[in-house]
Amino acid sequence: MTANGTSAPASIRIRAAVVWGLLYAALWALLGQGQGWSFGVPLIVAAVLLSDHLQLYPARLRLQRVLPFVAFFLHRLLRGGIDVSLRTLRKTPAQHAGWVTYHFSPHASSDVRLLMSTVTGMLPGTLAARIDDDIMHMHILDTSMDWEGEAGRLEQQLLRLIDSGASS
Predict the structure, then answer these.
(1) Nearest to residue 149, comparing CAs of 115, 100, 106, 109?
(2) Concatenated DSSP letters of 45-114
(3) What is the reported pTM?
(4) Pairing of strands 135-140, 126-132
(5) Residue 143: how many CB atoms within 10 A of its CB?
(6) What 3-state class would DSSP assign to 134?
(7) pLDDT tens digit string along 3-21?
């Protein structure tokens, strides 16, 4: 059932069950080192049924945007790692750390907001703390950096990656 009390179309539920089933099976294979399938398969089926019951439908990704997002992500991940490494080598740490608030664009769906909160830690010197409606509170190692520009670029990449049903 959806928020208005109706059931989602069967095609959406089937697609979601296949996606979740493949994801859960991949996780079981990875974490279980390819063993224990007699125990894993019933758990995977139960997880898929629970996902359907909770109406957890995976976000639709624009496949042509996956590689550009991965390149963006890896570049920022590397830059963030180098930034933190250099900060730890300094004799005196920077004194510009603090809490900031980032306002999501009106086009940001809940999928974009959740994924952004999840991957914000890969931005140079950032850590997401929580989301309140259209605001994400973040702890920044250096508030004098262009943290808002970095967060905005990440949000734009995610808006391009996740298909919200609207044409782009």
Answers:
(1) 100
(2) HHHHHHHHHTT--PPEE-GGGHHHHHHHHHHHHHHHHHHHHHHHHSSS--S--EEEEEEPPTT--HHHHH
(3) 0.68
(4) antiparallel
(5) 16
(6) coil
(7) 445 567 888 888 889 988 9
